[in-house]
Amino acid sequence: MNIGGTTDPQVYREFLMAGIFAQTVTFATAGAGAGIADDMHKGLIDRFRSLPMARGAVLTGRTLADLVQTALTLFVLAMVALLVGWRTHTNMGEVLGAFGLLLLTGYAFTWIGAVIGLSVRTPEAATSGGLIWLFPVTFISNAFVDSSRMTPWLRHIAEWNPFSATVQACRKLFGNPGVSPSDAWPMAHPVWASLIYSVLIIVIFRTLAVRKYRSATA
């Protein structure tokens, strides 16, 4: 795999790991959706309705629990990455900032999973619905290849993909090889782009999830 004009396996290993990290945290979407759908199916949500709490608190608690699980998964994955030769080349603050961005992105995507889980009838449907759309999001991105090698129209989609912004931001903060320079704003300012995308996703999909929760349990 040619990255930055070289096919050195170590270069690609460091290029790839940010994409693997990001893919792992976004795949938590399926688990979040399945968990909420299961709670709905078993009637657990109806029990929460009898308690004196805000309607959104149930969903917030569920997504935060998923965030803790994602953090543990990310820690194990980072240990394995170090064993296979992945390395960072920046200070500890930037490395922790990269993992913070990954967790924020994962948390944002769990709210998408919450909307899916509240929209289907079974946990199985929530799992399928949470994964089907994730595959094009993760593969039409810069996670596994340099987007500059894509056809122009596909490169444009990949560069403005929120997932790509997080991947590129992590590469920058880890000091790992990134994609070729681009005029696309998310690729030129990946850290800010990742933050903005994640906050927007949380605001939009949390609002939708709370509305669906209220109507589903009314």
Account of the protein in words:
The chain is mostly helical. The chain has eleven helices and no strands. The chain has helices at 9-26, 28-42, 44-49, 55-83, 92-119, 123-132, 134-139, 152-159, 162-174, 185-188, 190-216. The longest helix is centred in the N-terminal third of the chain and has 29 residues, at 55-83. The radius of gyration is 18 Å and the shape is elongated. The mean pLDDT is 88.
Entry summary:
This protein is mainly α. It has eleven helices and no strands.
Structure keywords:
elongated; 11 helices; 75% helix; mainly alpha; 218 residues; 0% strand
Which regions have little confidence, pLDDT < 50, spanning 5+ residues?
Answer: none
Gap from first CA to last CA: 54 Å
As a percent range, the share of strand residues is: under 5%
pLDDT average, as an integer? 88
Describe the global form: elongated
- Give the helix level as a range of percent: over 70%
- How many E-type strands? 0
Overall structural class, as computed from helix and strand content, comes to mainly alpha
Number of helices: 11
Give the radius of gyration.
18 Å
Largest sheet: none
String of helices and strands: HHHHHHHHHHH
